Amino acid sequence: LQDIFNKKPFRPAWNYSHPTIANISFTLYAVLGVNEKTQILTTFLWLRLYWYHEFLQWDPAECGGIEKISLPVEDLWAPDIIVYEFIDEDKSQRTPYVYVNHTGRIRYDRMLRVVSSCNLGIFNFPFDVQNCSLTFGPYMHTVKDVRLGLALPIEQISENSKKYLETSGEWELVRIEGSADVLTFGIDEWDIVTFWWPDSVSFKERPILYVVNLLIPSAFLMVIDTMSFYLPPHSTDRASFKMTLLLGYTVFLLIMNDLLPSTTNGTPLIGIYFSVCLALMVISLLETVIITNILHHNSVQHSRTPGWVKKLVLKYIAKIICYRLPMAQPEPNCKMLFLFPNFLGKEQQKEPGLIKQQCSYTQDLLWISEDIRAIRSYLELHYREKEFEREWILIGSVLDSLLYRIYLLFISVYAIVISSLWCA
């Protein structure tokens, strides 16, 4: 064996015109990390490499029936198989030995921590499926020296990886597909085995973490904001409640910002979802401000509702949205008939004393009549203002109901669109 060890710098072939056959297979054991900002994928592989060493062949019958031995990997020639997407220092743990059988076939198993570049798509986060390529091939040896192929069928590689990756973190392996190809650069050609799109290593995140911590709380806050429309529109509690809810949603987004992926290539759909939800809450608050202004319009100006507004809102819009208008209240009858009896009868005029007493009574009745007329004027003005206020409140209620239905329609359409985009 020492003679063979001394020939380590040379490719183990009796005829150098014949290339060395090498085959690879791997098992994707874990996805260690995904950095969307730098577009880097870190995976952990169990790599298995086979090749033939034509100098290491023997007859087991002449060697005590020994068919397989282990030898130090540092003492034998090995093909320079690398991962072309590798962009970091190789910090993988080295395996010190290889197995060699009597036919000269060598099996080299090693653990490989691959830090590779990958075009990560985050638009459908957390329901996205990542398709990353892993290209295995020699660094220096061309097809004249080393021919590369698969040691196992692609289906077997995919099944083995799924079996070990199914309990590994938040990532779930979808499929592994690949093909053998020839890489041409100038006049040289290299044999490579590539796992890429459409032949790719596809994996996706298990979204339950983000659904529970992000989507469901956001949906609950939107439901609460929608139900807040059932608060009395003429009460200031609705505006205060909506402002508190908007503040709480903003704090929620600040806390959950670290869970969202960030990249300069685009914005994930979940970020758009949160932004639109925040915009809807702002629109809901603006709607409350507008309705509050309409409802309190009469408290400042005490003006009559314009006829065209009253006709448009109470006649057409109320009918379109099926709003049931309250029964019209009868106007109070403040008209009073003041009758002054003729205290001075013919018989009574004959008595001067009685006549003085009746004049005193008449003067008192005139004063009372003036007071009653003032009360009547005040009551008429009060009832007129109340009628104006009732009309403005009724118009505000109809418009509030209309905007609430539009808000519900927009939220329903938005929920359908966002769900279809995530499920596509």
From TrEMBL:
Bilayer topology annotation: Multi-pass membrane protein
Protein localization: Postsynaptic cell membrane
Catalysed reactions, as listed in the record: Na(+)(in) = Na(+)(out); K(+)(in) = K(+)(out); Ca(2+)(in) = Ca(2+)(out)
Protein name listed in UniProt: 5-hydroxytryptamine receptor 3A
PROSITE patterns in UniProt: NEUROTR_ION_CHANNEL (PS00236)
Keyword Transmembrane: yes
Lineage, highest ranks first: Eukaryota, Metazoa, Chordata, Craniata, Vertebrata
Family listed: Belongs to the ligand-gated ion channel (TC 1.A.9) family.
Role this protein plays: Forms serotonin (5-hydroxytryptamine/5-HT3)-activated cation-selective channel complexes, which when activated cause fast, depolarizing responses in neurons.
Principal location class: membrane
Alphabetical keyword list: Cell membrane, Disulfide bond, Glycoprotein, Ion channel, Ion transport, Ligand-gated ion channel, Membrane, Postsynaptic cell membrane, Receptor, Signal, Synapse, Transmembrane, Transmembrane helix, Transport
Annotated ranges, domain Neurotransmitter-gated ion-channel ligand-binding: 8-178
Membrane spanning stretches: 208-231, 243-260, 272-295, 402-422
GO MF terms held by the record: extracellular ligand-gated monoatomic ion channel activity; transmembrane signaling receptor activity
GO CC field: postsynaptic membrane
Residue ranges occupied by any Neurotransmitter-gated ion-channel transmembrane domain in the UniProt entry: 214-334
Pfam families reported in the protein's UniProt record: Neur_chan_LBD, Neur_chan_memb
